[in-house]
Amino acid sequence: MSVTITHEDIEELCMGSVFLATGGGGDPYIGQLLVTEALKKHGPVTLFPLENLPDESLVVAVGEVGAPSISLEHLPIGNECLEVVDRLQEWMGKPITHLVSFEVGGANSVIPLLAAAAKGIPLIDGDGMARALPEAQMMTFAIEGVKPSPAVAVDYSGGAVYFDVRDAELYERQIRNLSMAMGGMVFTAEHPMNSEEARRAIIPGTISFALQLGRTLKRHSGNAGQIEAPLRELFEASDYGQFKHLYTGKVVDINRKTVGGFDVGEAILESTIDDSPPLRLAIKNEFLLAEMGDRVVASVPDLITMVDHETSAPINAERVHYGQRVSVFGIGCPPHYRSEKALKVVEPRAFGFDIDYVPIEDL
Fold first, then answer.
1. What is d(CA 250, CA 17) in angstroms, rounded to the nearest whole number?
2. What is the distance between the alpha carbons of residues 88 and 150, in angstroms, rounded to a whole number?
3. Which of these, 41, 195, 326, 354, is most buried using a 10 Å CB contact count?
4. Crossing angle, helix 29-42 and helix 10-20, to 10 degrees?
5. β-strand 160-163 against 59-66: which pairing, if any?
6. What is the pLDDT of residue 109?
7. How far apart are CA 27 and CA 38, in angstroms?
């Protein structure tokens, strides 16, 4: 069944997408304002079910690439995602029939809605991660063999760069370097897919799930302990895996800087409920690894999410600060990331951690 998103749904969609973003994906606040106004002007967007995709389709992924902290200081105008779709369509010489988000995370969950509403192009209910991850080769598009280009990137001033590169890791290096040169963040239209590729590579139902998750968070807002049961029920009835409470404590140290187009660092938490050892969270745009002492309690590609302990509002990594009281949850990733070919690019070793991936249910 298709889901229709109105301007009244955007706040809840953003809440759910920030939770799934595991700290990354870009702060959605400005995107939330832009998309809310776009839906008021152009009307609601009905998400297109992946299973209904026509055989003769051209699907393109749209979103932001760069260090999420940049989005807090370098604000978009709102037409960047429209410009990038127009430029790619003109370059390819054929109409883009459907759009898709490359990650259901933070701002990148709502930016494609802006393009879909303003241009009248259907938006598929799905994405290429079912969470947020920092690099292009980690998308299910790339894992399933979809080429990243032709692709176009547009910066905040409207300048554009065109990409013709067939390797996802090379594309990642090029687009990351470009984002740094163009102010730290660019908007891209990339990974054009035919129908067969899209059906194989897109993780279905993730945008509507983010909306459902946001509604659950809003309905049960309050102390983080109050949301555990409804969240566990929601996740364990989905394609995601086991839901675990990992930690409740205070942020006692945060070390974060922009390096190579990523927000990189770590956060240290001390427990406020028992004598557990401190929790260390490693950050590369997203929360990638959670350790208590020398014990790993969760790692990428499983999800590690932080929420405000008093309100249950999910927290982006760039908004973590000293003294916050938070709760941290771990969720098993969908099956797409448990395959051998996926783990080659999303296991802890792919991020420089000298450990094997152990599913969260086995830790």
1. 24
2. 8
3. 326
4. 140
5. unpaired
6. 86
7. 18
